[in-house]
Amino acid sequence: MDKIKIMHIVQSSGGVARYLSMYLKYSDKNRFEHILICSLDYKIEKMEYLAEHVEYLSMGRQISIINDAKGIWAIRKFIKKYMPDVIYMHSSKAGALGRLADIGFKNIVLYNPHGWAFNMNNISVIKKKVYALIEKVLAYKTNMIIAISAWEKESAIKYKICCSDKIHIIPSGVDVCLYDEERGRYDLNRSKLKIPLNAYIIGMVGRISYGKGPDLFIKAAALIKEKIPNAFFVIVGDGEERASVENLLSEMRLKDDFLITGWVSNPIEYIQLFDQAMLLTRWEGFGLVLTEYMLAEKPIITTRVGAVPDLMQQGKNGIMIDVGDIEGIVEASFKLYTDNQYRQTLVSNGRSTVRNLYDIRCTVKEHERLLMSARY
To answer: Could you count the other beta carbons within 10 Å of the beta carbon of residue 373?
Structure first.
C-alpha cells in the first residue's frame, strides 16, 4: 500500500513547533510520508530531520494583502509539486492561507487552530466577528477540524463555525518517553546561567507577547520579591514584546533578579531548574507548557482562562488565578513557598495527570486513526 502523503502547513512557532516536532517524531513512517511547509521562523527549529521534505516561505503573523497573496501562491506551487493526499494546517494564519491555496485540489483537509483567533481578549468585538466569519467561510473547505480541548470545540459551536460533527477533540501531548530517557542527562545548572546558588527560582515558559502575560509575571515578581527575598525569576522564550518587557524590568528595578533566555530548543531542561512554574496567559487554547511543567514535577500557578480549566483541577494539580489578579498570584506563590505538603500534593497529582492523559504517542495514534477513517 502506498504511503499517505500529509502536507503540514504551519506559521506559528513556539508551542506549535514543539507539538509538531513531537507529532512528526512518533508518526508511523511506514504508513505516512510528511511534507512540511513552514514560515522562516522554523529555520531555528531544526525540523529537517523529522519530515521527508521541508520547504520555507515568508509567512508573517500580521495580515498583509500583498504578502499573504504571495504566500498563497507559494503554497499552491508546493501543493502542485507534492500532490499530497492530506493537507494539515496548524494555527489560524496557516489555516487561512493553506485552505485558500488548496482551492481546486482534491485532498483531505485538516485544520488545527491551536487556539481560535476570535477568543483573544485584546481585540475588539468587531475583530472577533470578522475572525469568526473568516473561520466560518473557510470551514466549508475543511473536512475535519481538530480542537485541542473541549473548550475549543465549545467556542467553535458558540460562534457557529461549523457543525459539531466536523470537530474532533484531540488534546496536545508531551514526549513522556523522551523525558524519561533524558532527564538524568540534563547538564544545565544555575552556575551556567549565572543564577545564585541559593535562589528560589520562579519561572515561566512562553512567547514574550501580550497574550502570554509577561507583564503580569513581572508585576507579580516585584511583590513576591518582598515576601521571598531570595526569589529569582526566569522567562524562557522570546517575542515581539521583549523590548517593552525589558523596559518594565528596568522601571521596577528587577533586572538583577531576572533572566530572559531567548528562544531555546529544549525548554524542559530550563523548567527542571524551577522551584515554581507559572503561566499567566490572557487566553489559551490548550496550554501545552502546563503539561511540560507537570512532567518536570513542578508546582503550577496559572490563570483561569480558556481551556486551562480542562487541564487543571483547582487545588489538586495546580492553582488557578483570575487574569490580572496580581495579589492572588503573590499569595499562591507564597503558599507554595511555605507549605511543602501542599506543594508535593500538587506535584504528585500533576505527574499522574500528564502521564495518564497527555502522552504525545496517544495524540499521534488518535490523529492517524482519524486520517485512516477519513480516507477509507
So the answer is: 9
